[in-house]
UniProtKB/TrEMBL annotation:
Organism the protein comes from: Pullulanibacillus camelliae
The keyword tRNA processing appears for this protein: no
Keywords: Membrane, Transmembrane, Transmembrane helix
Localization in the cell: Membrane
Name of this chain's protein: Membrane protein
Length: 214
């Protein structure tokens, strides 16, 4: 028990983590900007590359130099593949609404992360539920492609997505606070946090978009 306490209290290089997250978000933003110059036919192959890189990072997470290199490459490609969705919402809702959604995302994410860190409550029990919920989200998203659903159903789906990624934020920061982490873990942690932010942002945009249609 004493060893566990020492590990969880001493191995928390938060300054390096947030510096890496900030730099990663800058790289993703550059990718998002560059996305406007990418031919439409390349977005699907890039999405496949993004998924492959995510799995590669899981296996390479203990190699510090490789981890950071892959982290920035993943962020760049993710920014590129994010462009069609952001472009669609900017044209459908307006740039001001998208910026407002980004602000809501920042507040929701920041507040949830701070609560998990300051309260030190253990939310690790959410792991299995969140994983199953993400699979359910994916299945429901695929079904919506083939079977049209009502605006109410889309609103519930979007709200469920927001709920799930707020839960993932609690889960991820709870693990960091209780388990601790080392420098070598940072690239994979940054990618996990980035995915929490991006998915939360996209589901908030989807929620606003459905409300707008109604």
């Amino acid at each position: 028990m004493m060893n566990e306490t020492v590990v969880s209290s001493s191995h928390k290089p938060y300054a390096k983590l947030f510096a890496a997250l900030f730099s990663g978000l800058i790289v993703a933003t550059i990718g998002l900007y560059a996305g406007q110059f990418v031919p439409r036919a390349l977005f699907f192959p890039l999405a496949i590359v993004e998924i492959i890189m995510l799995f590669m990072m899981i296996f390479a997470r203990k190699r510090k130099s490789m981890g950071y290199l892959m982290m920035y490459a993943f962020m760049l490609i993710s920014g590129l593949t994010l462009y069609p969705a952001i472009s669609y919402y900017v044209s459908a809702l307006g740039a001001d609404v998208v910026l407002r959604a980004a602000g809501i995302t920042a507040i929701a994410f920041g507040g949830t992360a701070l609560y998990a860190v300051i309260s030190k409550r253990d939310f690790r029990f959410l792991g299995s539920f969140l994983f199953i919920s993400v699979l359910a989200l994916l299945a429901m998203g695929i079904l919506q492609i083939f079977f049209p659903v009502s605006g109410t159903a889309q609103l519930i789906y979007s709200a469920f997505g927001i709920f799930i990624f707020i839960g993932y934020t609690l889960y991820d920061f709870s693990r960091l606070t209780i388990n601790g982490f080392t420098d070598r873990d940072i690239p994979m942690i940054v990618v996990s946090i980035y995915l929490d932010i991006v998915n939360l942002f996209l589901y908030i945009l989807r929620f606003i978009g459905v409300l707008n249609d109604d």
